[in-house]
């Protein structure tokens, strides 16, 4: 097996390191070439026998390279390179949920037609063996629900707010200083990253594509200390959770903050850790917990995929239904908090046909509603900058417990 | 693939049911014959086309049967049949941790010499995909610790004591009435079942056999409400936990009650649920959670193994080191409770070289000690019926937190 790596950053360098350990001397696996943006930074790799190139096509057109690892990030260029690699019959291993969520249909067709493998264990849940065990069990067991805490940055922020009683903005600033959050953290805190991951998981486990634009997404950008305080006073916590569900021929999907009891497994997932959970007919509930990111955890997942290709255990091609399907938001009880006291009365008036429970002057619970209905009404009354916070109440939580 | 099933009880019947669903029409898999003790009870299976036999050798000598599923329980007969099947080159899938913990060396040699697969996903953690993901990751990542709550009966009893404030004997009686506990529950409550499982996991993940007789085992037979009360007052819980560890060329293994904080993942594993956790160099911590038993969860694991054999993904033979190695008990802080007030003073005197923290007249904590030392001293002073309770304090717990 001869490998080309697109991107020699944190994960790409970790893959090289793992494959250089003595464990891999017995395998006929060699990383031949890596795409970098600047050769001088990576001279130490060159000294260890790795070819460096600035031209991706030196990898993609190399007949000796049978497997391409894409760990460069972004969407447009990875799309171009993955497509090209698969069309040449090269196997592809990627950690890139963004490009997968957008282009999986085209990738799967190319992989099948060119008898190439397309594996992506590292794309969801970093170091957690999640996709492969679920994919394999989906051969036997009908899964009808997948959920998870699948973004380390947002979970780190919420954990710190919960433990230390801090405001969102202060924690975000700290996280950025420590490198736990990007300078532009939008994908993480607005829920986009998790929506991509739940879309990839749904394609893999349900064999049904749930497009990003149909997934209800509410992030944590507007959460305040007062929201966490209300939850904690009631023995609860707030977590950003992705969930997709298939029942009665009806798909539901959402990424949104959830208020859940502290004595639940999800509430114990702290800091940058992730968890993925699936429910099925034989396996009523299985969960997988571990590091959501990190150099060696993520690289370990990439190498796991590489070994499956090496051992010819990755041949089965996913048959995913990409036809357009209505994806519904989740019907539940929702916590709503809005600091503008005039607007909150206007919003409550709009929601008068629902059962509302007042928590204090700025916050209430609306029962049996969807977040999209609440957001539509908030738009109608022009809440400035959409500056309100909504969170779903977990099924195990009774609204009155928050009083 | 033609299968013979040894034992058509809960799990065996579940395997038949799953393989009879429409999902499996596309596979060339057929269950041909099942061993039963009494044909009349299983006539409905015969009507669906399954041969029933009272003679195991009708399966073991059938040249058409290439794969044997052993789900009959016990040790001696499964040992005989599995050995025979492997020596005939038949693949074996078993859910039987007792026979594996005792005879794995012989089984692995036979499997290798006869080019047969030996798989046992169902033997540990019932429906949790645990063994395969760990085994696969062990190819890449050096795991140095495995731990888990791996017995549903004992965990059900401890959960109920914790939630409802009941005495051990009352909960055990209820569990037996509901069928959650056997009439002779010794293997479950004394920790033997979990010791077998941690031995099987250690062989699989560390590639090192830790024999049962070298694993320190303390069960929950002598736990009382007062022990749980002390833990709960301190925001803790008590769980029966198996753990094995490999560091600095030194193996440690124990199955024992552990006092751990309620805000930990293990404390959230309730009732008959199980969890398995592994720590390694690339994967700092991964956990797998789900149903520890149950007809379809366990049968799902058996069928998962069968599909791996069907897809020729089970060929790699485990190379386990069976040489004799010293296995040490765990050095930690231990909670000790003894109702006989004379004996407890005698025991404390014996332990005078250790730092002791008194909790109340019948209970104390001994710091930095092993459970085997405490048990040896208790034996020396002849505690009647070994009627004392000891529990390890989790690493995250400081002894003074229990005051």
From TrEMBL, chains A, B:
Residues 129-307 form the Homoserine dehydrogenase catalytic domain. GO terms for molecular function: homoserine dehydrogenase activity; NADP binding. GO terms for biological process: methionine biosynthetic process; threonine biosynthetic process. Pathway: Amino-acid biosynthesis; L-threonine biosynthesis; L-threonine from L-aspartate: step 3/5; Amino-acid biosynthesis; L-methionine biosynthesis via de novo pathway; L-homoserine from L-aspartate: step 3/3. InterPro entries: Asp/hSer_DH_NAD-bd (IPR005106), HDH_cat (IPR001342), HDH_CS (IPR019811), NAD(P)-bd_dom_sf (IPR036291). It holds the Pfam family NAD_binding_3. Its EC number is 1.1.1.3. Residues 7-121 form the Aspartate/homoserine dehydrogenase NAD-binding domain. It catalyses: L-homoserine + NADP(+) = L-aspartate 4-semialdehyde + NADPH + H(+). Keywords: Amino-acid biosynthesis, Methionine biosynthesis, NADP, Oxidoreductase, Sodium, Threonine biosynthesis. Belongs to the homoserine dehydrogenase family. NCBIfam families: PRK06349.1. This is Homoserine dehydrogenase. It comes from Acetoanaerobium sticklandii (strain ATCC 12662 / DSM 519 / JCM 1433 / CCUG 9281 / NCIMB 10654 / HF).
């Amino acid at each position: 097996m001869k490998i080309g790596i697109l991107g020699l950053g944190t994960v790409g360098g970790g893959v090289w390191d793992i494959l250089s350990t003595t464990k891999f001397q017995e395998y006929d696996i060699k990383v031949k070439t890596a795409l970098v943006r600047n050769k001088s930074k990576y001279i130490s790799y060159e000294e260890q026998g790795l070819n460096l190139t600035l031209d991706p096509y030196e990898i993609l057109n190399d007949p000796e390279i049978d497997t391409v690892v894409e760990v460069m990030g972004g969407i447009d260029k990875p799309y171009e390179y993955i497509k090209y690699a698969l069309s040449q019959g090269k196997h592809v291993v990627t950690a890139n949920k963004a490009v997968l969520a957008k282009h999986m249909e085209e990738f799967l067709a190319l992989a099948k037609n060119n008898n190439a493998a397309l594996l992506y264990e590292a794309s969801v849940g970093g170091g957690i063996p999640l996709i492969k065990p679920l994919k394999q069990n989906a051969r036997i067991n009908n899964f009808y629900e997948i959920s998870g805490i699948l973004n380390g940055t947002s979970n780190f922020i919420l954990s710190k707010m919960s433990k230390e009683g801090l405001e969102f903005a202060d924690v975000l600033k700290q996280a950025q200083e420590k490198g736990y959050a990007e300078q532009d953290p939008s994908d993480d805190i607005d829920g986009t990253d998790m929506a991509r991951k739940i879309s990839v998981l749904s394609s893999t486990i349900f064999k049904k594509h749930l497009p990003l634009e149909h997934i209800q997404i509410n992030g944590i950008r507007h959460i305040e200390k007062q929201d966490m305080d209300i939850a904690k006073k009631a023995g609860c916590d707030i977590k950003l959770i992705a969930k997709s569900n298939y029942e009665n021929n009806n798909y539901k999907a959402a990424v949104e903050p959830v208020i859940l009891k502290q004595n639940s497994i999800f509430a114990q997932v702290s800091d940058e850790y992730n968890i993925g959970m699936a429910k099925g007919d034989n396996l009523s509930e299985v969960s997988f917990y571990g590091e959501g990111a990190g150099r060696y955890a993520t690289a370990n997942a990439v190498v796991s995929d590489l070994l499956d290709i090496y051992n010819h255990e990755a041949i089965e091609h996913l048959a995913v239904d990409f036809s357009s399907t209505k994806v519904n938001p989740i019907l539940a009880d929702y916590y709503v908090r809005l600091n503008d006291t005039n607007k909150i009365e206007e919003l409550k008036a709009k929601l008068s046909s629902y059962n509302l429970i007042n928590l204090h002057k700025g916050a209430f619970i609306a029962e049996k509603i969807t977040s999209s209905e609440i957001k539509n009404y908030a738009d109608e009354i022009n809440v400035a900058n959409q500056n309100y916070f909504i969170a779903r109440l977990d099924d195990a939580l009774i609204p009155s417990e928050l009083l």
